[in-house]
Amino acid sequence: MSTMIRTEGLKKIYRVGKEKVVALAGVDLEIEQGEVCCIVGQSGSGKSTLLNMLAGLEKPTRGTIAIAGKKISSMDEERLAVFRQENLGFVFQSYNLLPQLTAAENAALPLMFSGMGKEQRLKRALRELKQMGLAERAGHRPSEMSGGQQQRVGIARAFVARPKVIFADEPTGNLDTQTTQHVLRAMLDRVAKYGITLVMVTHEPNLAECGDRVVTLSDGKIIGNVLRKNAEEEAL
Ligand code: ADP
Ligand code: MG
């Protein structure tokens, strides 16, 4: 196994007026290729901040982040955007779907830069939607779908381009228990099948059980980093 993600001395300080908020207070973390890593901790502990920085969506105040050996923390915006397109997928807590596009068009978006024709892109997107139990919603717009359905479109979008790493912030936060099981199973099957590294923020302890690694944050610091064996079989 090789290291997929490595951070050193990662700090994030927000300035709010004259106040300084230390969201991350020095995080050193290594995540292996193909690992499912769950990030847990109380509200405000820095989970989303850490995830956003790992995903290249926010710049650290101090410290370094390398993904697949590439130091993303020192890339300029343009290179970072290309790196994200080619290597990373995201599942947002608030879906971030484009309202004017159908489910299939939304799920196909990451393939825009792949050189694939439109028909091929939509075919790939439809396959991902099917995996999420959403084939019959392919032509629907976000406003015509429930929160859970929109979240599953977001997950299909994250997988469609087969990225090296998928980052997910509370991906099942808006789903009922049964749908959570279904979506989680589909996500774990697909990361295993394609060797994708999954970094997932969750505040549900039983969801974290599916992680190979569980990282616990408190006040912007890692207070627990546990490797688990056969985690997935135990949890599901
Ligand atoms: P979590 O996802 O674990 O709930 P966050 O990473 O969202 O925690 O937040 C960590 C800390 O940083 C919190 O104290 C939060 O209020 C603060 N914070 C997060 N984002 C910002 C921001 N954009 N500006 C100022 N403070 C922020
Ligand atoms: Mg959060």
Total number of domains: 1
Order of strands, main sheet, comes to 6-7-8-3-9-10
Bound compounds, each kind once, are:
adenosine-5'-diphosphate, magnesium ion
General form? globular
Order of secondary-structure elements: EEEHEEHEHHHEHEHEEH
**Main beta sheet:** 6 strands, mixed
Proportion of helical residues: 25-40%
Quick one: how many beta strands? 10
If you average the pLDDT, what whole number results?
92
Question: Helix/strand-derived class?
Answer: alpha/beta
CATH superfamily: P-loop containing nucleotide triphosphate hydrolases
Radius of gyration over alpha carbons? 17 Å
Question: What topology emerges from the helices and strands here?
Answer:
Layout: E1 3-16, E2 19-32, E3 36-40, H1 47-54, E4 62-67, E5 70-71, H2 77-87, E6 88-91, H3 103-108, H4 118-131, H5 147-159, E7 165-169, H6 177-194, E8 197-201, H7 205-208, E9 213-218, E10 221-227, H8 231-235
Bound molecules: adenosine-5'-diphosphate (ADP) and magnesium ion.
